[in-house]
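Protein modeling request. Please complete all fields; requests missing the sequence field cannot be processed.
Requester role: graduate student
Desired output: 3D structure, token encoding
Chains: 1
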Amino acid sequence: MRVPSITEAETLIEEASKLNPGPWIEHNRTAGFCARKIAEKCQDMNPDVAYVMGLLHDIGRRDGIMDMRHIYKGYLFMNSLGYDDSARICLTHSFPYKNVGAYNGENDCTDEETEYIQNYLDALEYDDYDRLIQLCDAISFSNGPTYVEKRLVDVVIRRGFNELTIPKWKAFLELKQYFDEKVGTDIYELLSI
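Delivered output (193 residues):
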């Protein structure tokens, strides 16, 4: 897969923490931790790749405070480094429900960027790395793993609710069930939540 090495990924997140410090850095570290722990129990997944993808899923935030645009900026940044698979995760991690209108928060992308993201999602068949990082994003606070329901409510309180929030929540809950079945246990037990 085309992702950075662990060392390079950790250097990238450290650089990003200097460019735009904030709780998003520790949220990404938590997501990387969760992704690794879950992938270790999946015979067809590489835990190191999962860790790197989780660690860098919000890397677009390195460019400053932004809302949905961090998805697109992360995609461009990782592509510029030649890491297509990591770039893909930057675009897919917020969309277990494949509709840009389901994003909780402001769409601060241009019309062209929004159209690009939607077309990208429409043309893509999600794999288990897309699904895993979507789930790990939804169970990661900056101070550690949490229940998906708790994180989803937190996001809505901070960023708002729209007509696509419920379908998106259902998609997240389906991801939780999918990985519970895939690893053969409740992921909350695996992560000691």
